[in-house]
Amino acid sequence: MKKGMTLIELLVALLLISIVILAVFGIYNASSSFFNSSGTKSKVLNDLIYVLDHIDKNVYLSTGWVNNPAIVVTTPTADSYRIDINQDINQTPINFSDDQGVRYEFNPTANTIRFADGSGNWKNLTNKLIDPNGLSINYNPTTGVLSIDNLCLRQDVGQPSDPKTNPDICITSQNFSTFMQSLN
What we know:
Blueprint: H1 7-60, E1 63-65, E2 71-77, E3 80-87, E4 100-107, E5 112-116, E6 122-126, E7 129-130, E8 136-140, E9 145-154, E10 168-177, E11 180-182
Parallel strand pairs: 1-11
Antiparallel strand pairs: 2-3, 3-4, 4-5, 5-6, 7-9, 8-9, 9-10
């Protein structure tokens, strides 16, 4: 008797191979989509961490006391915040006349967070700022704590939020403490 493959056996084999190939492509597409989504989230998160680290460093270096606060938070317009930070560059904590000021500007309308160093040169830290939950920045001169609430960034601010392709990354609350703060 001759051994060979029948047409039905050949069709079953092709069907099984097709199912395996489709499963492999499905897994590839899903992992590719997840990888791209994770990469986009990581970019926005890296920008947020950069801004927070930048602020943390400058707030930590600020000096002041209750009657001459190290940090002043103002709202020059209804939708923009400015943080002025005094830093003691000559290491004379009770002499505030030689302090160097740095400034942050949070402008959700322009989608920017900018920083001005002691010489007044502005540097754009990010252009991904959004304000979906109401950005809030406050400073307590008694405790020396600067708090930033509802700071949100988005990969492409001109497009609607999408968790996979255009995510919003937000912090609900972040506190920064000054190194030197006196109640006297």
